[in-house]
Amino acid sequence: MAELLKASMATEDWKKLILKTDPKEDWHYLSEGNANIVFTCRKSNTPLAGFVLRLSKQRDFKQQLWPHDLATKWLGKEYIGDIVYPISIPKEFSKTLVETWDKSRPTHRKGQDECETELCEEACLMYNWCQLPMAANVPTKPGKMFTWEIKPKNLFLSSSPFIDDSHIRKLVCEFSRLQWHKHKNKDESICKHCPLNLLFKHNQDKTPKLFLSELLKCVGKQSYLKVFAHVSADSSIPLTTLCEIKDFEHTLENWNVLLEIFSDILQQHLNLFVKLSLLQKLDCYDIEYVHACYRHLHTLQHGALYLSQISLCSEYSSSSLVQSDNKQDDANDEYKQSQTIALEKAYKQLQVLEHKHLSSNSQINSSLSNNACHCSKVESLRNKTVAWNTNVRHTLIQQSVQSNQPSELVDVINQYMVSRVFRDCSVIVTFDSNSFVFYLHSKCSSNTSSFLDTDPKSYCIGVIDLDPKPAQRIKDKWIDVETEILDHYVIKVLGSDSPSNK
Ligand SMILES: O=P(O)(O)O[C@@H]1[C@@H](OP(=O)(O)O)[C@H](OP(=O)(O)O)[C@H](O)[C@H](OP(=O)(O)O)[C@H]1OP(=O)(O)O
Ligand SMILES: Nc1ncnc2c1ncn2[C@@H]1O[C@H](COP(=O)(O)OP(=O)(O)OP(=O)(O)O)[C@@H](O)[C@H]1O
């Protein structure tokens, strides 16, 4: 019944359904990041149970759905799920919701601002990956269900033609470099494992399990891995709520078995990670070149117009370039059209990348192994004087930027912006550990890996957090971070002089 209702419901009906609930009683705080707070509905027998309510902390935020659409087209709907947007939620409702759960919120996620509880009025409902597909609206058994979440950041090495092959950016993945940069003063939480290893299938040393056990050391300190247990909130009610576990090695019985299950599920879906890595590889030219394109567009006579075609850009969205209402509508149409074009172009580029990938090697894994990251062999790079000629690189970049048409520069920036979305997304898995007991017992004696294929009801896997980033971050954050990383990494980790002086 709930499923039927769902299919035919308009955004306004969803809103009515939300407003019929009691913000103090009917919702449960699930989790949050920098930009969004997420709640699940505690009521069963409502279509809301199939979704999470995601409230944006940016007050004037307008969700752009094209990264979501691109992901659906490229990865498949089964990994992305439905979204209902925009749903306008009265400020009072979301304020009560957030205040009710104030104690559950981590301090570092709360804003400094007194008015932080005033969230953006446009909220969205997203497919709830904390439930099994067949179990929507059916209470789950506490103690046996778990939701694990992993951020597969930076699954690629730079391939920019402007960077020498011996450059650190082509040898050591950005994940490792970023770790050293962000956690340089608190070494205990550095994760010394490379996410690229998630892409290897056959090499026993590089299974997801190894990657996960490294990530586990950072649980609670970093947000690359989250684990939630489905617990019973009240023994008289057959409903479960989710409880994030920070120290699960000590809290959970059989955590080793759970790790095994999660790692086996990831192993079954390595192709999802390969596809995500290609989305991330849309960063074909690296931040230095993208920053140069962005700066160059600013200097052009009609620069603002070109910049407004960056479909993830808020600084220059078309609406800010026109005055009258009619023109505003035209501009919005143009903006939407530029998003569609950007999506098509990104999709075509993905097909080219995939073809390159597959044609160079029939085996995706062997092609990746040629491209392996050197982060675990930092010792061998230490004290090697690598003559990266920064001046030559900058000259080449400037020449290329000036010889390209503005529309080509817009395409480069657009694709970079998409790659940033997928470099920051998360893969979320919910499983019923009961269903895996037989599988784990018999794993050693026979080849039962097909169990995961034949019984998909025992787990689900999806991709979340596909919000676009504002293009201003190119100049306000990413270029500076990269420069700092290079200097820090080279001096502190490799122990040689900063190559940026060479
Ligand atoms: O800068 P990074 O690579 O550390 O990524 C930020 C993430 O840090 P992480 O390293 O994953 O812990 C950061 O994640 P956390 O808040 O640390 O969980 C955000 O995802 C941030 O994006 P936004 O500001 O929410 O749009 C992310 O910022 P963007 O770089 O994607 O803009
Ligand atoms: N569709 C979903 N189903 C289940 N849980 C979800 C869903 N979307 C988000 N969550 C939970 O809420 C948390 C915060 O959501 P999300 O990552 O989208 O926030 P964010 O502010 O955009 O994060 P970041 O700081 O990484 O940008 C997630 O880490 C996840 O635990």
UniProtKB/TrEMBL annotation:
The lineage of its organism: Eukaryota, Sar, Rhizaria, Retaria, Foraminifera. PANTHER family: INOSITOL POLYPHOSPHATE KINASE 1 (PTHR14456), INOSITOL-PENTAKISPHOSPHATE 2-KINASE (PTHR14456:SF2). It catalyses: 1D-myo-inositol 1,3,4,5,6-pentakisphosphate + ATP = 1D-myo-inositol hexakisphosphate + ADP + H(+). Its EC number is 2.7.1.158. GO terms for cellular component: nucleus. Transmembrane segments: none annotated. It is an enzyme of class 2 (transferase). The EXKPK motif is conserved in inositol-pentakisphosphate 2-kinases of both family 1 and 2. The keyword Kinase applies. GO terms for biological process: inositol phosphate biosynthetic process. It comes from Reticulomyxa filosa. This is Inositol-pentakisphosphate 2-kinase. Phosphorylates Ins(1,3,4,5,6)P5 at position 2 to form Ins(1,2,3,4,5,6)P6 (InsP6 or phytate). Signal peptide: none annotated. InterPro entries: Ins_P5_2-kin, IP5_2-K_N_lobe. GO terms for molecular function: ATP binding; inositol-1,3,4,5,6-pentakisphosphate 2-kinase activity. Gene3D superfamilies: Inositol-pentakisphosphate 2-kinase, N-lobe (3.30.200.110). Keywords: ATP-binding, Kinase, Nucleotide-binding, Transferase.
